[in-house]
Amino acid sequence: MAWLGSICILMVCAAGIPAALATDVGNGQNEILRPLDSHLFHSLIRIGTPVVQPEHTLALYTTSRYDPDLNKSYSRLLLLDASSGESTPLTPEMEGERISSPMWLDQDVAGYVFKGALYQHNLAPNTNGTLLFNTTVGISSATYRQETNTLFFTADVFPDGNISSVPEHKEQERNRRDSAQVFDNLWARHWNKWMTLEKPNLFAANVPLVANSSGGEINLMRQLAPIKDPLLRWQVEGYTVSSGGEHAAFVVRNPGPDVAWSTNVDIYLVACNSSSSQPKLLTDAYKGIASNPTFS
Prior knowledge:
Blueprint: E1 2-3, E2 6-7, E3 9-12, E4 18-21, E5 33-35, H1 38-43, E6 46-47, E7 51-52, E8 58-67, E9 72-81, E10 87-89, E11 94-95, E12 100-106, E13 109-114, E14 117-121, E15 130-133, E16 140-145, E17 150-157, H2 166-174, E18 189-190, E19 193-194, E20 199-206, E21 218-219, E22 236-241, E23 247-252, E24 266-271, E25 280-281
Antiparallel strand pairs: 1-2, 3-4, 4-5, 6-8, 7-8, 8-9, 9-10, 9-11, 12-13, 13-14, 14-15, 16-17, 17-20, 18-19, 20-21, 22-23, 23-24, 24-25
């Protein structure tokens, strides 16, 4: 795994003890072997999946690292020149929540999600991006279609499917005078996460490259039956968008009395130009897991 002129190689010594080649190999300095203990392992830089520019000459990617001594995490956005192999840090290291969803908003404009909002970046090294799109709910898993200036993203909403009403629902939850809960099915908790009424939905919004826009998003899943049972694990498990942004295909586990022990996961196809579009079930004949839809 290589980054920024340095290289990290995992190896096993003759005695069977893992070691890491950790410092300045690319600069011709003396190689230093260090035991691969938990401290070193957790402090290694992680590299995100690159996103290639439409002209195929540049790529965006993220790196993240954890500082065990300070108990803090850092991430940044970088630009890779495919011809030279050189990487340029576009943003300073951001502390806390990771930079995610790197994307190309235009030929020379990058985008990324940080703290639930979309930022645009003009590719100037070591500079902060400009806020481009924000909502009352943090967005994630974002992608962009330049042809129609459409941003696609997921966001946690309540059964009414509206982003704007989320603060009101949360305020009602905070003002409850009891904490009672009725369990009438399984999956009250999935692994270490309790089920709630908030479920990730897939949205589309027109986002021209004008700073600090908000609102106007369409819930592409709104025509599906609302899920009012907090104990059901129901979420978008992946999605893809056609090249022109006309259609989206998303993966979702449909609710039902057997949801806790069923492996049935379906794919829906939906038009992206209207909130009244009815998603079409594509995998009704299959009772297992369907995943990774791709437009041909």
